[in-house]
């Protein structure tokens, strides 16, 4: 029922956008399209991290160290990309692996040793900030060459036969053929001409939603976060499920961190700047579902994209005030939302087997 | 014929507690076998060992004549052992069918909920149980949840079904339903181990009875060749008086007076409640669970808001007072749900003993707790209420259910109350303790206290109460004096019909 409501909202948004794309005046269309493109670009790392964290939270582990994991993933993606001659795919794998190791440390402390999740989560953030800043200072002088992920049009153009139908060749490289659709073409082109990772990310998130709600594994994850003792009596290994969920969320937060770096093509200290926490907020705002988290991330990402929009329109506002927008939106969204959503009953409670 | 189950010389040592001390248990296939014994006798522990939740310190388990090792519930389920726990093992946030198939080893990677739901509904139909497989467990009544638990075990192929105090939380009608199901399972050749403190039930449904006492197996007898008195003596080790002696009924001045009280709420809200309780009297509230009993107690104790009407305690207007102000009127409250409202499970016995009085002299002075006095007081309550615990430092959550209840009772009744509110005070208690609680409540009354007794056990209300008020959908259907007690009439009133 509730899932349907989200779907309907999504559908309405798409329809409204299409209508604008067809009927609105040219400059409004362009502004809006680049706003959406920005939103997607900003939201996707958040959404991927949040979708991973959904699994951890659903299994009963609140990972406040998400910010730290993301930061670790960011630094090592940067280093990895440089190591592999600028290859973003291999770089991101290195980042995910580093974040995985951090998640393993977190999992060991809170699941096996049953330490307080809040304390350990915060400590992981401090550890990661210190660690990444130190390593960064050591390696920053190295010559770093970073390429981002290829654009969807570049990939499509390489497909034999179909490629020619889906893309046009221009002097700045291939372009999506949908730009030729009358009226709405250019509008759609700005939105859809994204790097390939955005497409992959959305597919991953939809797939994770399916896993969580339609598979045996997903059922176990959801159950363990509600009533671990009952799961034990049903022959489920609570520790195994929790380890798996936390490690998996580590992989995705690492990937999210990597995407940040590949987006701006460089690493700076504390490059995540609270995005890990916003991802946690997206988990809650998205009602602990991967697709919900994507929706929430689009809202939060939109709050940030508004800054660019305001600049584009030419309004003058203090930039510090502008920078606050996403954080304010996050707080307001959560404050209006908390208590209205079902939090996994065993969230943050360690499980003791008799 | 080889018995389906043989447990030999089972020993289970917890830190400081020898819960099972060389227990032997033989269960025949196709029988209903009762396991009885005092609170803390080790019944749940023995069954948890059988179900693989606890590892025994030593001992042997033979299943259909073969020795097996049950290291985890997974093994137990594989061997066809199913268990319905004293506290249900269902996940409220999931649907019925999700609970049923959770962790089943033969589940497909991508669940086929629809197929499972169909099979589950068909299984339910066989036992005359109608349960919506897609309903959330949190929306089910306690009785329905229990049926889900039983079906879940059978759905997973249980041949031997353990029911740990299944009737403690059921209404009389639900108990009758449960017994029908149990008999049908027995006819199909399944075996049931049934734990209960109620002699009547055990005689009604069981073939054989095994009694545990202080962690040892006393004896096993066919239920046809024994009687209530003998059984009670086996459990407690002394003669029990299954009836209570009450002094003459001499009501005094009014202690509680409710005038046209209303509360707001979705279900079980009060509507136009007027009643009074006098010194030296027990007023019993009869009714099916969920008909406003909780709101009645909450409105008196200040735990919920009264939207209209007045409540007086000893002549003082206490309408919408804070809970502490109510308690200060020498009111004691034995709550229905001890886990939620009676105790803090992760705190020690002695800490739980002062939850109400910690701020008062002599428990504390100048903001500092007086541990010497607190400990002495706790020792005394443990002693006089016969709480079975390794010590007052023990975490209360580790005590057996009945002993937790005794701690709550001890705390409330040792406060020298003028007015006692007791909601299901013997839920989960053994017969010795039940006898004790009943005697204590009657003694309270005999020495001039007022008692409000809420219970879904009609028998309990009939024997103890001087007057009975029957509640239905938040209203009082009528208040009967002792001369007018009539089970059929009360039954009708409980169902919402008057006359
Ligand atoms: N996990 C545990 N740790 C320590 N002691 C325990 C634990 N579980 C049970 N005990 C102790 O073992 C003894 C037996 O408890 P058990 O729960 O088996 O009693 P029971 O016969 O089921 O009682 P009741 O009728 O009250 O349910 C009790 O003294 C209890 O305090
Ligand atoms: Mg028990």
User: What does the largest sheet of chain B look like?
Assistant: 6 strands, mixed
Catalogue the ligands: adenosine-5'-triphosphate, magnesium ion
According to CATH, the fold-level topology of the largest domain in chain B is Rossmann fold
Give the helix tally of chain B.
17
Number of strands of chain A: 2
Largest sheet of chain A: 2 strands, antiparallel
Shape of chain A: globular
Helix content of chain A: over 70%
**Total strand count of chain B, please?**
22
CATH fold annotation of the largest domain in chain A: ABC transporter involved in vitamin B12 uptake, BtuC
What is the architecture of the largest domain in chain A at the second tier of CATH? Answer: Orthogonal Bundle
Mean pLDDT of chain B: 90
What's the CATH H-level superfamily name of the largest domain in chain B?
Answer: P-loop containing nucleotide triphosphate hydrolases
Average residue-wise pLDDT of chain A: 89
Q: What share of residues are in beta strands of chain B?
A: 25-35%
Strand order of the largest sheet of chain A: 1-2
- Rg of chain B, rounded, reads 24 Å
Spans of chain A with pLDDT under 50 lasting ≥5 residues?
none
Total separate domains of chain B: 2
| Architecture per CATH nomenclature, i.e. the level-2 architecture of the largest domain in chain B | 3-Layer(aba) Sandwich
